[in-house]
Amino acid sequence: MAARKGQLTETTPLLPTHSKHRGKRVFAAVAAVLAAGSLFSYLLLAYCNYSIADTSSKRLSSAAVGRYLHITDLHVDPNYMEGATTYSQCHRRPPHVLPPDYDSAKDGHAHTGRFGIPLAKCDSPIALINATSEHLKREWAHKLDFVIWTGDSGRHDGDPEQPRTFDQIIQGNDIASAALRSAFKKIPVVPNIGNNDVSPHNELAAPGHKRACKTFRALERSWRPLIPKDQVPTFHYGGYFAKDVVDYDGRKGGITALSLNTIYWYRANAKVGGCRAKDSPGLAQLAWIRYQMRRARMRNRDIILLGHVLPNRDNYRPSCYHGYARTVTQTVPPPALNSSDSSEELVNVHAQLFGHSNVDVWAFVGQEAKWINSHDALLIATENVTDKRLWWEREVDEESGRFGKLIRDVWSTDVTLHAAINQPDERAWEDMEDDPQVHFTESADHIVPVVSATVKQSLPSDFVESLLKEFERVLVQNPPNPRLGVTTISPSIIPKYVPSFRIFHYLRSQPAQGERWWHLPVGTLLDYDVYWANIHKLNTKAQIDVRSFFTRLYRFSDEYKIDDLSINSYLKWAERLLSSKALRKRFRSLTYLGTQ
């Protein structure tokens, strides 16, 4: 039977598909799943039948509303095989050698289908990437203003028989980049570097080291032409860059996206330390953010921050986390002001978008008001008590010292890098840091530090519970810190739980007075939708209509009765969440896309 337009069959790949991916339909009927009796089969059946009622959604079709896509963690795996064992990371079909104590009956190999397997440790097959690209091209390319893509396109390195190489990481980025460029030919796509886009994973040396230079240059070639030409030197230096993504309707200005290299703040990166040393790569990136914020004020533009690893106490080194919170939530003087900060106007950071954790949540940042407003003599080192800037903030504002040199030689130029800016050979960063010495292990949802017995550390074992404790810390402040920000983690394409993405709705132009949202500044986030692909069912179909490959799981405003995504709305919603057991249960369910 011939495929109709808009359908994918097993012979219509957009990108080269591994020949072993074709031809096998291995999903059992529901009765067989029940008969299997394993925990895996039970969870898979629950996932298959999970649904959310589509309530009557508020209209977001106003001409004042724009939309953009946040997609993350594609984890492309060209070695994926249908029918392979999950123990082998879906790389080998049975029979193959398994540990003596491994219960093969509980392995999910009977369910590793064409588009992947949910609730397992396998990565994304090429067929899933093809279908995602074609769906986005047909359903969303003409409806969106821009695309945010927050990294981790390389596969995981979890199969000891097929160790991941650097070339394979770049291959994953080549495929992901080609898929997104094919889907979105006429709108900006902003890429980002993840902890699985470097080799070894989590480890990235300081700017100027050979491996860092090799990584940045290879990724830039893979993503070309998604990084603006005038930002290529900055990316070659530190793995971050800025890109204008949209101009507002009916007024000057627009939105500039800052693509961050969160690996330089990440606790699990043993190649660099924290953000206190003068030549710390993490501190340099904070200085670059401040520089870009000053430029944004001069150009009347607002900011979207995007990165891979969410900023919180668990993920970032302490000095980097506090530095990030301070930098993105405080007042920044315009370029004409080279003295103390005399303006109370905040730079409009309208969104902070991250991936990495594969879950669907949000969190506050900047609640450390006492730290932000304090005078740390080691950091400020000034006799001018009215100047609350840190030493490096003054260097950025005045374009002096080390960061003034970086501004002149790298961040504000499109010429090749000067050799004088490069760092020397490997440094003993730990000798310059006051952060605790920590080793890390990967848990299901986030990095868990294993600290020496001399360091008191208590981390919640549950991801959602840790977020709720953060909400409590924010709400006990009376009044709450006025410089709070909100960070969001979008669910991933990899079938860790279920392939998903978010569509954000934002205010692109100012409504007339009295109209809906007229009181909000242009650029404010209004709402978002979460879309998912039920690959358990899709794997059983010979023909796929790519237009319905992803369907809407829920709309945030409908689910939580919230008017918009401004900070005041988030605060009110967090208060309701903490006071309602039923709402907390719902929040937990949606965090894991209904799979728990």
Summarize the SSE layout with pairings.
Blueprint: E1 7-8, H1 30-36, H2 39-49, E2 65-71, H3 126-139, E3 146-149, H4 166-183, E4 189-190, H5 210-223, H6 232-238, E5 241-247, E6 254-259, H7 281-298, E7 301-306, H8 318-329, E8 349-354, E9 361-365, H9 369-372, H10 377-380, H11 391-398, H12 401-411, E10 438-442, E11 447-451, H13 463-475, E12 485-489, E13 500-507, E14 525-532, H14 535-538, E15 544-545, E16 551-555, H15 556-560, H16 567-579, H17 581-591
Parallel strand pairs: 2-3, 3-4, 6-7, 7-8, 8-12
Antiparallel strand pairs: 1-15, 2-13, 5-6, 9-12, 10-11, 13-14, 14-16
Helix pairs in contact: 3-4, 4-5, 5-6, 7-8, 7-11, 11-12, 13-16, 16-17
- Briefly note the structural class of the backbone: alpha/beta
**Number of helical segments with 4 or more residues:** 17
Helix content: 25-40%
The largest β sheet comes out as: 6 strands, mixed
Kindly provide the radius of gyration, computed on alpha-carbon positions and rounded to a whole number of angstroms: 24 Å
Total beta-strand segments: 16
Q: What is the overall pLDDT average?
A: 79
Question: Which assembly state applies to the chains in this document?
Answer: single chain
Major sheet strand order: 4-3-2-13-14-16
User: How many angstroms does the end-to-end distance come to?
Assistant: 39 Å
